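Checklist before submission:
- one chain only
- standard amino acids only
- sequence pasted in full

Submission:
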Amino acid sequence: MRLLKLYSVYAAIALAAVSCGGNSPDHPWNPDWDKKTDTDPTPTDNSKPRYVWIDAAANFSDYENDKDRIAADLKKIKDAGFTDIIVDVRPTCGDVLFRSSVADALKKVDVWKGSSYVWVERTGAYDYLQAFVDEARKQDLKVNASINTFVGGYYCPYGLGADGMLFRDKSKKSWASVINSEDGLVNVMDLNSSDDYGARFLNPANDSVQKYVLQIIKDLASYDLDGIILDRCRYDDYGLQSDFSDVSRSKFEAWSGISVSSWPEDVMPKGATALGGSVSEVQKKWLAFRAHVIHDFVEKAAQTVHSVNKDIRFGAYVGAWYSSYYISGVNWASPKYDPKADGYRWASADYKNYGYADHCDFMFLGAYAGRDDIWGSGEWTMQGFCKQGGELLKGDTKFSGGPDIGNSTGWVGGGQAAYIPDAVKACIENSDGFFVFDLCHIKMYDYWAAFKKGIDDYLKTVE
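Returned file contents:
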């Protein structure tokens, strides 16, 4: 069975062992793959917002039972010059760190300690998200909550086992993604071998899945938040091999008007992990269908958030590598941008219609280039990622670009403080803000002073 995860879990686990073990939002482990405003500044502050991402798994052992550590770290965040925090409250296992009427509360996370992964149990009774809200308000920090969207479980490495709804509730197996492998179609819940650990994704085209996730988002919007961000609002890590369930087949046929006689071969060859030399019209229609599914869900999610609280900004995190992000079923650009006209061979004439930027109040583009690729004009440089982001979003929404300072090439292992001011400058000057993944790396490698310098240098330019 030939399966290829596009975001290599193997690399992620290895790097987590030397960093802090989190799940970077949609991190590109292999870069060779073929109306509302943002934070409104106060009248005396013309600066752009600066965000720190706080991954749930990576920081869990610090905060799961200790509110005092939350307060201490938020003070450091404020002192370094950041304006916002992004609190991950639904990691890849799919359980949550806030009150929800449908999702289970997160009880444990696998954490790297010493020389192996171990379960860290949560015994604290306090509301995790509310604790961040309370402390952030004291520091005059804005609070944004992030969830991993289409996930339902996590299969751990090193024989530790699994956790999450899909593993606890066998009746939900039909919600899970179905992969097009060389040996045939396989539900991801049947991949529980040591070679297939990582997140277990839900099928975005499944109506029951969408209803479930939208209720989670509705529950989240009841908090006193400044923003809600969807991470992993996309198809499975297996990319073009996902999703080939009966649900997706019937929805594709109804949407496209195409009757598929041989499934999945009429759409993609068995086990295909990349497009061939030529892209058929059916394949283009299939790629547009997947982008349509995500587009329509994002529209529903935005409406859900604003129906609860119109003042909460809604948005998404995406990888800035647009040229290959179609493999995840996502068109994050403005519908005014036409990738077909721009020469992308995988784009149909209607693919542009499923750009969802105009449904977002703000967005985050992962400018996850290497340490030595900060400056440049194209993809796979931080500056280039942000410049391209502005061109593709076409003013439909505000966006912030930023680096992963723990897992990207050259950043692993720390000791890179000298590069951080340039990373801040390259991103914030070419987007509407700046964000960094992740807090755990700032703490582990003591990058506080480096970020303060980068932010102070920027603030001098807007005084």
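Reviewer check: The chain is about 30% helix and 15% strand.
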